Amino acid sequence: MSTNGYLLEIQNLSLNFGGIQAINQVNLNVERGLLFSLIGPNGAGKTSLVNCISKFYNPRTGKIRFNGRDITPLPPHDVVRCGISRTFQNIELFKGMTVLDNIKLGRHIHLHSGPISGIIYWGKARKEEHELEALLHQEILTFLDLTSIKSRVVGTLPYGLQKRVDLARALACRPELLILDEPVAGMNREETKDMIDHILEIKTAWGLTVILIEHDMEVVMNISDWIAVMNFGEKMAEGTAAEVQNNPEVIRIYLGTKCQA
């Protein structure tokens, strides 16, 4: 475990796509228990950065430490086992499966029963399945108000509910660090408020650290404990909401005018 209070440490991280420098020597430290927001223009490197953390991309240089452990060389499934989970900017659900089955998939990485017991559904496999359903019903489905639609096919649900199912699946991993990539993009005002309320309740109740990518500056400035600003693959500023929204360079590059929280 890291002894300096940081849950996540990113050191000199760089990522290239051919001749394109997507991330350039980025350093970030995320304190345990914070809601840490990444903001910046489209193409600034925000999603590329979280894709490196979750190991969808392999950085060219640099290190990523989580709980004091170097996770840079790990494959994606081992990063999840370490305690990092995420949602996606574009909903990545199995549209022909039910809500409950989609959420169960988020817990699959932590199940330990072997193929034989799984095939005959006996012993350890059956015990794990019952424990999983209890976890989902008591904590996740109830918490996110999804119990009444657990048997619905995801593809038949409105967009806002699908985003909530995506969040539920990420929570089924029981992460320490939850990465949310534009969780309220495309939502109306009521759906946005509901999603933000759920995120804040989860952060408090579960003691999670949250990394948030979001373009809705009203949301970002109202709920963030710390904000980092990226532009052209580099970190250009970081600080509290008040510090960031009054930074002349951030105003010039991204905010345009001072964002009122």
Summarize the helices and strands and which ones pair or pack:
Blueprint: E1 6-17, E2 20-31, E3 35-39, H1 46-53, E4 61-66, E5 69-70, H2 76-82, E6 84-86, H3 99-105, H4 115-120, H5 124-143, H6 159-171, E7 177-181, H7 189-206, E8 209-213, H8 217-223, E9 226-231, E10 234-239, H9 241-245, H10 248-255
Parallel strand pairs: 3-8, 3-9, 6-7, 7-8
Antiparallel strand pairs: 1-2, 1-4, 4-5, 9-10
Helix pairs in contact: 3-6
List keywords for this structure.
single chain, 261 residues, alpha/beta, six-stranded mixed sheet, four-stranded antiparallel sheet, 10 strands, 38% helix
Detailed description of the structure:
Helices cover 38% and strands 24% of the residues. It contains 10 helices and 10 strands. The chain has helices spanning 46-53, 76-82, 99-105, 115-120, 124-143, 159-171, 189-206, 217-223, 241-245, 248-255, and strands at 6-17, 20-31, 35-39, 61-66, 69-70, 84-86, 177-181, 209-213, 226-231, 234-239. Strands 6-7-8-3-9-10 form a 6-stranded mixed beta sheet, with helices on both faces. A 4-stranded antiparallel beta sheet has the order 2-1-4-5, with helices on one face.
